[in-house]
Amino acid sequence: MQFQIDKTDGKARACTITTAHSTIQTPVFMPVGTVGAVKALDAVDLQTFIKPEIILGNTYHLYLRPGDDVVAKMGNLHGFTKFPKSFLTDSGGFQAFSLSDNVKIDEEGIHFKSHIDGSKHYFTPKKVIDIQNNLGSDIMMILDDLVALPATQERIKASIERTTRWAEESINYHRENQKKGIGVDQNIFAIIQGGTDKAFREKSAKELCALDFDGFAIGGLSVGEANQDMYDTVEWTTQFMPEDKPRYLMGVGTPEDLVENVYRGVDMFDCVMPTRNARNGTLFTSFGKMHIKNAAYTTDENPIDPECGCMVCQNYSRSYMRHLFRAHEITYLRLSTIHNLYYYLDLMKQMREAISEGKFEEFRKEFYAKRGVEIE
């Protein structure tokens, strides 16, 4: 992987990441394709209407179904899904933790039961790398010990210590594999933990960033804490992260979250919000969220967002979208997902342009002004 910083404006960064499959310009939002597909869309939709350079796959879900061995036999994620650009796969630890009953974490890994059939499984740092080698993703996330907030100081301390041990095991295993010709074109990111505690975040960041990872993520946020606590934690943590490697904030978030965390130096994001909200009738626009089921749109001839250049806004009215949603028409799922993802990726493009022109602060103020919010 190649990484270069093209321009900075304050702490905001416009960078370029080059993998074996694509060139990714940051800030970047990565659509979530949990089981090898972005919900309601296929690879042709993505490449025609959204044009992402990177999407996510989920290690936990793909391991359970269809099985990472099946994906490997079908040409890895790229051959299996026919999406030719980059994939990032998470470690599956979060899903093992959140979807399973009777999860047990020990010093070696995570014991869990499948949410599909109750079968027992065990994720270790090496195991999740083996799975991701089969998946053939361009960026692999290591197994970390996730902590649900709020948590005791003792639990957070144990979490970051275990995460560091697992990170050392993971990077050593991956580098040895590469010497054997395994995962040569795959990159590996570590995940900084520590809750919202500054001392723990500093400890975790310093320990992990001393290791030979290709990039670093901030994990364990957007899990119920106040937005300002998230922003403060990100701002505190990024100072301990290397400038010459990508910075990824996992599972975030709203358009406001993206703007605020780019402002604080983050390069990469992912979240199910644009796709999930689309399916539930909430559409994102340049002036805020729109609830398409509202009766006010019954005979509204306007596009969802007059400022949006997506295929949906160029062709269909709010009236038609409301009708499809209320009629439970499956076409609505596709069109609303195309719009929301286009909006998110276009927002990132606008931020990159603002950074490149040295006008990010001006962009940020205008972003909020359109929503009726004035910031200093």
From TrEMBL:
Keywords: Glycosyltransferase, Metal-binding, Queuosine biosynthesis, Transferase, tRNA processing, Zinc. It catalyses: 7-aminomethyl-7-carbaguanine + guanosine(34) in tRNA = 7-aminomethyl-7-carbaguanosine(34) in tRNA + guanine. Zn(2+) binds at C308, C310, C313, H339. The active site is at D90 (proton acceptor), D270 (nucleophile). Pathway: tRNA modification; tRNA-queuosine biosynthesis. One of its GO terms (molecular function) is glycosyltransferase activity. Its EC number is 2.4.2.29. It comes from the Bacteria. It is an enzyme of class 2 (transferase). InterPro entries: TGT, TGT-like_sf, tRNA_ribo_trans-like. Residues 11-371 form the tRNA-guanine(15) transglycosylase-like domain. Its cofactor is Zn(2+). Binds 1 zinc ion per subunit. Belongs to the queuine tRNA-ribosyltransferase family. Catalyzes the base-exchange of a guanine (G) residue with the queuine precursor 7-aminomethyl-7-deazaguanine (PreQ1) at position 34 (anticodon wobble position) in tRNAs with GU(N) anticodons (tRNA-Asp, -Asn, -His and -Tyr). Catalysis occurs through a double-displacement mechanism. The nucleophile active site attacks the C1' of nucleotide 34 to detach the guanine base from the RNA, forming a covalent enzyme-RNA intermediate. The proton acceptor active site deprotonates the incoming PreQ1, allowing a nucleophilic attack on the C1' of the ribose to form the product. Homodimer. Within each dimer, one monomer is responsible for RNA recognition and catalysis, while the other monomer binds to the replacement base PreQ1. This is Queuine tRNA-ribosyltransferase. It comes from Sulfurovum zhangzhouensis. The lineage of its organism: Bacteria, Pseudomonadati, Campylobacterota, Epsilonproteobacteria, Campylobacterales.
